[in-house]
Amino acid sequence: MAKTIYVLNGPNLNLLGIREPGIYGHATLADVEALCRETAKAHGFAVEFRQSNIEGEIVNSIQEAMANKAAGIVINPAGYTTTSVAILDALIAAGLPVIEIHISNIYRREEFRQHSLISKVARAVLAGFGIHGYALAINGLAAIIDAQKK
Ligand code: CA2
């Protein structure tokens, strides 16, 4: 059976394509999911795609990824990026390769967006590629997983 990449999305990302298109573009979260599935499939991976506005549910998804021996995690922690020790701790405990992704370039935005706790555990961070960043994140994660086998 194909190994699984968990793609986790934090609060308000369900509003993609509906509000603030000037910052986040016109694509919806369903478009992001389709892009992730297509990209992962090309590498032989299945995808568990989740969005939650609730911190504990994101922690539960990370623990599920760990229990299911997932191949890795791509996470856009959104508003929890700079605040969630709980998500950071769960990612550390999971021990899986993690890629952090942001649709916007957080370094061109307000200073408070630029201090990610999650980056401490991320193997790589992508910001500013729009939703294409999710495809780049999955391609990069696939390369990391491939390199681990050698
Ligand atoms: O650029 C990103 O992907 C962010 O993670 C998005 C977060 C923001 O707090 C981070 O600083 C950067 C916000 C997600 C909210 O998404 C929305 C999407 C459409 C409309 C309104 C909010």
Radius of gyration: 14 Å
Strand tally, please?
A: 5
Oligomerization status of the protein chains? single chain
The CATH superfamily turns out to be Dehydroquinase, class II
Provide the β-strand percentage band: 15-25%
Overall helicity: 25-40%
CATH fold descriptor: Rossmann fold
* Contiguous runs where pLDDT drops below 50 for at least 5 residues: none
Verbal overview:
This protein has a single domain (3-149), classed as Dehydroquinase, class II (Rossmann fold, 3-Layer(aba) Sandwich), CATH 3.40.50. The protein is 39% helix and 17% strand. The chain is built from five helices and five strands. It has helices spanning 21-24, 29-42, 55-67, 85-94, 132-149; strands at 4-9, 46-51, 72-76, 98-102, 124-127. A five-stranded parallel β-sheet has the order 2-1-3-4-5, sandwiched between helices. Strand 3, helix 4 (85-94) and strand 4 (98-102) form a beta-alpha-beta unit. Helix 3 packs parallel to helix 4 (85-94). The longest helix has 18 residues, at 132-149. It starts with a strand and ends with a helix. The structure holds ligand CA2. The site of ligand CA2 has 16 residues, from loops.
In a few lines, what is going on in this structure?
With 150 residues, the protein is of the alpha/beta class. The chain is 39% helix and 17% strand.
Give keywords:
alpha/beta, 150 residues, binds ligand CA2, 5 strands, single chain, 39% helix, Rossmann fold, globular
Question: How would you summarize the topology of this molecule?
Answer:
Elements: E1 4-9, H1 21-24, H2 29-42, E2 46-51, H3 55-67, E3 72-76, H4 85-94, E4 98-102, E5 124-127, H5 132-149
Parallel strand pairs: 1-2, 1-3, 3-4, 4-5
Helix pairs in contact: 2-5, 3-4
Bound molecules: ligand CA2.
Ligand CA2 is lined by residues 12-13, 15-16, 19-20, 24, 76, 78-79, 81, 102-104, 106, 113.
